[in-house]
């Protein structure tokens, strides 16, 4: 952005299509067009979007952008003992409980999920920033309810 200023773009603010790989689209020190989303003066950070008009995945900025039954794509943020945390936006995350990871029983389920892995899921609950639940079960993603 300037000699002393650089921008930070979270993966959901960088990709138009979440099935793309970040490394296939951008390289370190690439010069690209960006839109400033937020200036964090206290931490001296500028958050930018690198997305263009050809957006396949809607930008999610709040739990209010989600409702039960909405099918969304995101990225695995963390694999924990209680399930998988999925980044749906820079500040919006959902929990996929172990019981909602798959239609099939996965004995060693953690081996199937890696940080930054793209996932497709359906929102089952959205009642606050830390109260978003989703399922990755294909039977529920493909159902009308």
Description:
The chain is mainly beta and 145 residues long. Helices cover 8% and strands 32% of the residues. The strands form 2 sheets. A 5-stranded antiparallel β-sheet has the order 6-5-4-7-8. A hairpin with a 4-residue loop joins strand 2 (35-40) and strand 3 (45-49). The protein starts with 6 loop residues before the first strand and ends with a helix.
The CATH superfamily name of the largest domain is Nucleic acid-binding proteins
| The first-level CATH class name of the largest domain | Mainly Beta
Strand proportion, as a percent range, falls in 25-35%
Radius of gyration: 16 Å
Strand order of the largest sheet: 6-5-4-7-8
Strand segment tally? 8
Which bin fits the share of residues in helices?
under 10%
CATH architecture of the largest domain: Beta Barrel
Question: Could you report the average pLDDT, rounded to the nearest whole number?
Answer: 86
Number of helices: 3
Structure class: mainly beta
Topology:
Blueprint: E1 7-8, H1 11-14, H2 22-25, E2 35-40, E3 45-49, E4 71-80, E5 83-87, E6 93-97, E7 118-126, E8 132-135, H3 138-141
Parallel strand pairs: 1-3
Antiparallel strand pairs: 2-3, 4-5, 4-7, 5-6, 7-8
Q: Can you tag this structure with a few keywords?
A:
OB fold (Dihydrolipoamide Acetyltransferase, E2P); five-stranded antiparallel β-sheet; mainly beta; 145 residues; S1 motif domain-containing protein
């Amino acid at each position: 952005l300037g000699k002393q200023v650089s921008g930070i773009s979270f993966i959901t603010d960088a990709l138009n299509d979440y099935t793309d790989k970040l490394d296939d689209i951008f390289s370190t020190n690439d010069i690209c067009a960006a839109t400033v989303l937020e200036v964090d003066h206290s931490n001296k950070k500028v958050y930018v979007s690198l997305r263009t008009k050809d957006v396949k995945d809607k930008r999610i900025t709040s739990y209010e952008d989600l409702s039960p039954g909405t099918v969304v794509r995101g990225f695995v943020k963390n694999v924990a003992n209680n399930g998988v945390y999925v980044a749906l936006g820079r500040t919006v995350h959902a929990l996929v409980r172990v019981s909602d990871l798959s239609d099939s029983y996965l004995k060693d389920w953690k081996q199937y999920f890696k940080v930054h892995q793209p996932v497709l899921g359906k929102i089952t609950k959205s009642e606050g920033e830390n109260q978003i639940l989703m399922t990755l079960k294909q039977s529920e993603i493909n159902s009308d309810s």
